[in-house]
Design brief:
The protein is an all-alpha fold. It has 20 helices and no strands.
């Protein structure tokens, strides 16, 4: 879409797209990045704490299986509901409510004394933290200039990996010195601190303010500060006066969930859901079972743990590299390449690899491809939907994708119990990666030129 065309159809988008990156931008992006890092911290926290909790409660670690899944179930519900809230009540409003709920869930976890209360608290944590994600993505998408949008969305989203890595680093010393409860207190207090900062410093989406008719003076002030244009500038005045094309109908009609399936999205949305399910299945299967599978394949425990560490390092590195690439290549093609890398790496890793070096390299490549793709997928989905249903489109995708994250660890355990070989299990993981690659190629053909990144 050329600037001239955009100006005729969406004058607000032109002002945002032409604005230089300034202090307001960086404030928004840094707060959103902090939210995503704490999201990753809280959602990955229980896995690091289970050994200490199991010893304290005199229970086998296997008894914590449902509690581990409870947060993922909470994310599924939270992402879906908060996406709707973000489109109806505002991205900032939904984000703040959900983030506070997630922080409260983490603080309550520190008081748990049995598995039932633990599972309930983990569900609450997942519900809140999962609900923050689609609204963070929507906010960054709607404030970022088009030329830097993909880079900034992917970069902010990838901070979740940094948060989970941070949890792994501090878990040992914190648990040793202050007990497992200290980790959940940290996981609750830090989000509350960031939440206070967000309450005072994080603005609402300009497009939401204009479309909803709420606080027109706030929308005008934000647009002026964002663009650096003087008050009364004719471009600014036109942006505040001309109805946005996607929001020209009544609020109830324009925000209808039917827009998730309008036009090319009739096929595009279901295909995106397939990609979300496959991606989440790959991320959580590898996170849950890679150490066990490598150990069963004949590698030492130390090698299995180190290879899994490289998988997680590959995910962080993948987030940084893919955010850089996202500013230079269409996201649909970049995603297809990442899924192809994951497919080839999994096929090779499942081909009776005996070299420790090869196992390290392949584990890194799997993390780079699989988790790197998961970061890009949220950014890509946000670009596919109209402003009025953006948070809902991303939220539904993330929520439905949790079918993969919840089921894949269970399927891995069932496959091992049924006696399938490690090589066949790892090789089978290449199938969802290949399906996701094919799905992205299909979407690239379906997607109208005006919405392609």
């Amino acid at each position: 879409m050329t600037p001239a065309t955009a100006s005729a159809n969406d004058p607000v988008a032109v002002v945002i797209d032409e604005a230089p990156i300034g202090r307001l931008h960086w404030r928004i992006f840094l707060i959103c990045a902090a939210i995503m890092s704490l999201d990753g911290f809280d959602l990955g926290l229980l896995g690091f704490v289970v050994p200490a909790m199991a010893a304290d409660w005199a229970l086998p670690p296997s008894s914590f299986a449902f509690a581990l899944s409870a947060s993922l179930i909470g994310v599924a519900f939270g992402s879906t509901i908060a996406g709707w809230m973000g489109d109806r009540l505002g991205r900032r409003t939904a984000l703040l409510w959900m983030f506070v709920i997630g922080a409260a869930g983490s603080l309550l976890t520190a008081l748990c004394a049995d598995l039932a209360s633990l599972s309930i608290c983990r569900f609450i944590t997942g519900f809140g933290m999962g609900g923050a994600i689609p609204n963070v993505i929507a906010l960054v998408t709607e404030f970022a200039p088009r030329r830097r949008r993909s880079f900034l969305v992917v970069m902010v989203y990838s901070m979740a990996a940094l948060g989970s890595t941070g949890a792994s680093v501090i878990a040992g010393p914190f648990i040793a010195n202050w007990g497992w409860q200290s980790m959940f207190i940290v996981g609750g207090v830090l989000p509350l601190i960031v939440g206070v900062a967000a309450f005072f410093k994080l603005p609402e989406s300009i497009k939401f303010l204009i479309a909803s008719g709420r606080k027109p003076s706030a929308a005008a002030d934000l647009l002026q500060r964002l663009s650096g244009r003087a008050a009364g500038d004719p471009v600014l005045e036109r942006a505040l006066r001309v109805p946005l094309p996607d929001m020209a109908e009544s609020p109830a009609a324009s925000s209808s969930s039917r827009l998730l399936f309008a036009g090319w999205l009739r096929w595009g949305t279901p295909l995106l859901w397939v990609a979300f399910i496959g991606t989440q299945a790959l991320v959580f299967f590898n996170s849950s079972w890679m150490p066990t599978l490598l150990r069963e394949a004949g590698f030492s425990l130390q090698v299995a743990i180190q290879a899994t560490g490289l998988f997680h390092f590959g995910s962080v590195f993948g987030g940084l590299v893919t955010s850089w690439l996202a500013a230079r290549y269409p996201l649909s093609r970049l995603l297809a390449l990442l899924y192809l890398l994951a497919t080839l790496s999994l096929l090779t890793l499942g081909a009776e690899v005996s070299s420790v070096t090869a196992a390290y390299i392949l584990a890194f490549c799997v993390g780079f491809g699989v988790v790197g793709a998961s970061f890009c997928l949220g950014a890509f989905a946000s670009s596919c939907y109209a402003d009025t249903v953006r948070a809902r489109g991303v939220g539904w995708g993330l929520g439905i994708g949790r079918v993969g994250s919840i089921s894949s660890p269970l399927l891995g355990g069932a496959a091992l119990a049924a006696g399938y070989t490690v090589d066949s299990i790892i090789s089978t993981l290449a199938i969802p990666a290949a399906v996701c690659c094919f799905v992205m190629l299909l979407i690239a053909r379906l997607q109208p030129t005006a919405r392609k990144n």
